[in-house]
């Protein structure tokens, strides 16, 4: 469960709660949700509430004519469990979600990107598929074994998602997963990670 620490735009030291609420409401109104910080449990809470709100608003609208949600991603990743939770809510959304890799979808953000119903990527954007790492783990041998069993289960879940959502096969995945596998947009298209290259700024709004 890799944790990467960067400045979080919605952090308490940078912006007050009222402004946070206004920003989140504006994203829901515009149907343009930004994932541009470290992924934490707070990110999971934010995105879940926004996607549920939009789906509730769309409750009586046929799926085929619903206005899509745009999830604009520029994130180096973060907590794996929270990332999997966001993947789940994206897959459950009946309102279509278009994911756009603006610059980078690394680690957990890559998993989230794969949960989008349609996946676009800017020409120079990148992806990172890797094993991640577990930090600050301690305890008795039995506890450590229990954690490793749990972590192996998470890795199995990630593998299932990647194989299901892309053209990556088991052999390629096994060969690349335990290293830092950076994928640029042209390769991402071939691997079925991305569906289309963003060709105009009009596709972002």
- Estimated helix fraction: 40-55%
Q: Describe the main β-sheet briefly.
A: 7 strands, mixed
Low-confidence stretches: 1-14
* Rg over C-alpha atoms, rounded to the nearest angstrom: 17 Å
Report, as a whole number of angstroms, the end-to-end distance: 33 Å
Q: Spell out the helices and strands N to C.
A: HEHEHEHEEHHEHE
Helix/strand structural class: alpha/beta
What value does the average pLDDT take?
Answer: 88
What would you say this structure looks like, in words?
Strands 1, 2, 3, 4, 5, 6 and 7 form a 7-stranded mixed beta sheet that branches. The two termini are 33 Å apart. The chain is an alpha/beta fold and 205 residues long. 43% of the residues lie in helices and 17% in strands. Mean pLDDT is 88; it is low at 1-14. The radius of gyration is 17 Å and the shape is globular. α2 (41-57) links the parallel β1 and β2 (69-75).
